[in-house]
Hints:
Blueprint: H1 2-23, H2 36-73, H3 105-123, H4 126-134, H5 142-152, H6 167-171, H7 176-184, H8 199-216, H9 226-237, H10 239-250, H11 263-269, H12 272-279, H13 281-289, H14 298-302, H15 312-323, H16 329-340, H17 342-346, H18 352-359, H19 368-381, H20 388-429
Helix pairs in contact: 1-2, 3-4, 7-8, 8-9, 8-10, 9-10, 12-13, 12-16, 16-19
Amino acid sequence: TxxxxxxxxxxxxxxMADLSGQLSFSDPSENESHSDDRLEKRCTEAKPSCxxxxxxxEERMNRRRLTRSSASSVPSTYSSTDSDSEVAVKxxxxxxxxxxxxxxxxxxxxxRKSAEIESALVTGDKDRLAQLxxxxxxxxxxxxxxxxxxxxxxxxxxxxxxxxxxxxEVKHHKxxxxxxxxxxxxxxxxxPGIGESERPALQEQLTRLIIRVMIAHPNLHYYQGYHDVAxxxxxxxxxxxxxxIVERLSISHLREFMAPTMAPTAKLLQYMYPVFRRRNPQLxxxxxxxxxxxxxxxxxxITWFGHVLPDYGDVVRLYDFFLAQPPMMPVxxxxxIVLHREEEILSTECxxxxxxxxxxxxxQDLPFEKLLVDSQLLYEQIPPHSIKDEAEKGDSALxxxxxxxxxxxxLLYGAPVVLGILVLRxxxxx
Length: 430
């Protein structure tokens, strides 16, 4: 556009120069004393050509004005690297706005539950913490469990037990050798993220934790499976808090398991059969006919399922639930699992070894959140005090069956010997 305007100005200047040349009457060096006649003659001769040139000039000017106006109305595609050229203005690139990702319902509920747990911790509301531990998904993470589990057990986080036994006291305890054997067999309970180099130190801490509880409570008796419970608390909260939690559990939830014999534990397991009879009579008869007993559920109960569940997340989720529930709740969860597998059991041969083999292997895809709800409903609808007498009768019947089995074995193996002695006496007397 600038070049066009410049060109037009140059041409106008040239035109004006031509006109001035034609309109000049004399050379500037000539004398001013020319006569009037000569001047008039010169003007008369120049007038026609002057008028013609003026008309031509006006026409050229009009054409250039039209050209400039039309050129200015049309966008120019001219580009140049000259300093006088106009730099083309780039159109801004329109970027697509990123849409904000909306949080899913599950994410929203997790955030809300985390905030509720934090609020209950700040206010010290133990009942609310227990409700949140029982509700779906439990306490969400180990970082939260470190703070909540001690509160559920009534432990002051500032309290520290200074009565730590020496290494000699630990090694000379009567249960030390058995504890070491069990701890060395517990390698599979360590999560995959723990390296081989860290495990010896954890095993040493676990052994010391267990022996400390035994020293603090000489009336308690160690049992195989106790280390499966203790290792979970060690991994989540560490040795010191783990010791305090396990110590309190040992005189409350785990007390029946730490008796001199397993008889109290066997009585607890008998509570399952009255639940089966009331909830599913067909399943109850099938199990009773097969003479299954309760031994299949023993490792479930005494380890809080820690020994039979390979997934660490499932184990700590169950511990959230058990810590906030009465001591009998693991029995009701065992009953809920058996009831959940009704179809598998009824389709299995009604024979003790077959059903025992089926139930001793817990499936990896059990819906634990649903089962926890089911076990809580069973506890509320069929509480322990309502089936206590029936469970004790079942335990007595079990003892009688065991006695009869012992007598039958004695007669089976002892009868030939007795008959041989009688035959020899008759032979000698005759």
